[in-house]
Amino acid sequence: MNAPHIIAPAPEVPDTLARILADKYEEVRERAAATPFSEIERQARSAPKPRDFIAALCHAVGEGRVGLIAEIKRASPSGGLIRDPFDPKALAEAYCEGGATCLSILTDAPWFQGSPEHLKAARAACALPVLRKDFMVHPWQVHEARAMGADCILLIMAALTDDQAEELEDIARSLDMAVLAEVHDRAELDRAMGLETRLIGVNNRNLRTLQTDLATAEELVPLIPADRIPVAESGIRTPEDVRRMAAAGARCLLVGEHLMRQPDVAKAAHELVHAL
């Protein structure tokens, strides 16, 4: 298969996201030049079988627990350096001990100090399914995600056109990976409904201001059809926040910065998992 061209960025993106995407397109060009598409595709096809991300979340919710996607990240644009020292292997083991359902691993380097090696180390340390948390803009990255062991990818609707999102989802599905489609407002939610994925993430973080407001999920989650699985993201810190999201209809949560700032991440994860 010939390497596809680099797709142009989606127009009208928020300022912070636009800067991140500019860096991402340049990074993808460099990485794709270093590892040709045929090679990354071969690596993806020969990677170990994906773990079932959606089934894990459904099982947790079915047992009355929170479907917690616990995130591993060293830094963020809004929070700066979050955890140092930073040991993805130890964090993955702690999350597993704390009852997390899945992991989310940041692999973006410029803005989150992430790395594919963080994902590989975390996935090897436990049996939990793993989401590659990054800014996916090109088919090459989807194959790279599978090659590094990711079981699920994130598609940020604010960063993609409908055609881009559909193309990247199709590739992920061809590799037996799950897709988490992330939205921030009603328009993005409507667009996400055009995808096949059942996982719809509602990010409480405003990409323009980087501020969080749980009211975003309270507004959007009830609009998500019953055949989809809502995932509330960002700004969730306490058992009360968990119950607030569950009351809105989201019993699956993605929590990162709060957990990363705790001295005992296993205990912190356990508190959220058993908040209902």
From TrEMBL:
Q: Which reaction is catalysed here? A: 1-(2-carboxyphenylamino)-1-deoxy-D-ribulose 5-phosphate + H(+) = (1S,2R)-1-C-(indol-3-yl)glycerol 3-phosphate + CO2 + H2O
One of its Pfam families is IGPS
Pathway this chain belongs to: Amino-acid biosynthesis; L-tryptophan biosynthesis; L-tryptophan from chorismate: step 4/5
Question: Which BP terms from GO are recorded?
Answer: L-tryptophan biosynthetic process
In this chain the Indole-3-glycerol phosphate synthase domain maps to 17-272
Q: What keywords appear on the UniProt entry? A: Amino-acid biosynthesis, Aromatic amino acid biosynthesis, Decarboxylase, Lyase, Tryptophan biosynthesis
Instruction: Give the family from UniProt.
Output: Belongs to the TrpC family.
What is the top EC class of this enzyme, as a single word?
Answer: lyase
- Listed SUPFAM superfamilies: Ribulose-phoshate binding barrel
Q: Under what name is this protein listed?
A: Indole-3-glycerol phosphate synthase
Indicate yes or no for the key word rRNA-binding. Answer: no
A molecular function (GO) held by this record is:
indole-3-glycerol-phosphate synthase activity
Q: What is its EC number?
A: 4.1.1.48
Which PANTHER family does the UniProt record give? INDOLE-3-GLYCEROL-PHOSPHATE SYNTHASE, TRYPTOPHAN BIOSYNTHESIS PROTEIN
State the source organism's domain of life: Bacteria
